[in-house]
Amino acid sequence: xxxxxxxxxxxxxxxxxxxxxxxxxxxxxxxxxxxxxxxxxxxxxxxxxxxxxxxxxxxxxxxxxxxxxxxxxxxxxxxxxxxxxxxxxxxxxxxxxxxxxxxxxxxxxxxxxxxxxxxxxxxxxxxxxxxxxxxxxxxxxxxxxxxxxxxxxxxxxxxxxxxxxxxxxxxxxxxxxxxxxxxxxxxxxxxxxxxxxxxxxxxxxxxxxxxxxxxxxxxxxxxxxxxxxxxxxxxxxxxxxxxxxxxxxxxxxxxxxxxxxxxxxxxxxxxxxxxxxxxxxxxxxxxxxxxxxxxxxxxxxxxxxxxxxxxxxxxxxxxxxxxxxxxxxxxxxxxxxxxxxxxxxxxxxxxxxxxxxxxxxxxxxxxxxxxxxxxxxxxxxxxxxxxxxxxxxxxxxxxxxxxxxxxxxxxxxxxxxxxxxxxxxxxxxxxxxxx
Length: 435
Prior knowledge:
Blueprint: H1 5-13, E1 22-28, H2 32-48, E2 52-58, H3 62-74, E3 81-85, H4 89-93, E4 98-99, H5 101-104, H6 115-118, E5 131-136, E6 138-143, H7 144-149, H8 159-171, E7 176-179, H9 184-194, H10 201-204, H11 219-232, E8 236-237, H12 247-252, E9 256-262, H13 266-273, E10 279-283, E11 298-305, H14 310-324, H15 326-336, H16 345-351, H17 361-370, H18 386-401, H19 407-428
Parallel strand pairs: 1-2, 1-3, 7-8, 7-9
Antiparallel strand pairs: 3-11, 4-11, 5-11, 6-9, 6-10
Helix pairs in contact: 1-2, 2-15, 9-11, 18-19
């Protein structure tokens, strides 16, 4: 069966109510192809029924959306629905500005959400605080055409094999064997999760606000030191090292042969490769000797904000029901590369007759990556002022990549500054019960 937004919308029209529409707003932080997909879903929802009307407003970035939503809440001019990214989870949970989605929609079968998508947004009691929406995870991309030119016929799946392949690529004249941007999400969070390593004590903050960062003492520190050495060897390039000035663009143009990136980047890469190169995508690489654990869910989820009347809340619930439908998740995956979040979607993809279509390439591998064995340290990150910490981490590690200090010194400094943020957050919410 062929799925389209219009078909999904038409399926709902028969049950639409004729009551006067309740106007609601949904703020999101995406741009580009993801923004277009969100706007398409909003238009489909409005076309599908007449009881509610949603206006979806882009804010330019996750960070800006988060700041504006908090300011709007204080001014009592906030939307009923907001999309917040993973790093802002604890801030939202303790803000008293949102209604837990499982509390607002008790009739939904929330256990249908895949474990890897829901763990990050669960309360300590296992209830979902927000509805996972545009969910991503870290994947490994290769330009198979360029690898084969260098005599590499097997796609690498460990760091040791990647570096071996990188040396072959360099020897064959390839200027950029592997690329990353050194972003916190990629080189620390997702690396630590799949290798079963803690980022902070108290199981990454889930067990209390008095957590402290520990990443500077784990194997993540060795990996980051390796990245510095591999960059010096000409095997790894960061954004500034590439002709494109951006690691994703450098991969998409064929400048770089291998890349670690979000599943949400898949559609852009596939479109850029069309007719030029063969693309492969798989789970992010492991170091040999380590058991693979789950990767974190990335992207963002949708929260219901407090302070709205019953009609607006009903409209919000209706929209959440709409985007949760398998056909809508399939649309978002096909349009963007984001990963489905409920267990029934893979069955729907199988029944669609397009299970092997490239447009669903990230679905199975993304779910498989997030559903690997988990530990108390791989549920997610529940740390205060984490948005600010991500910036601190990048600032310090970039000094090491620039040769201004060793990576260990950079990580020790990032730990110190990160702990200062945690203590400030702990003091701000002193006496507040963790969700």
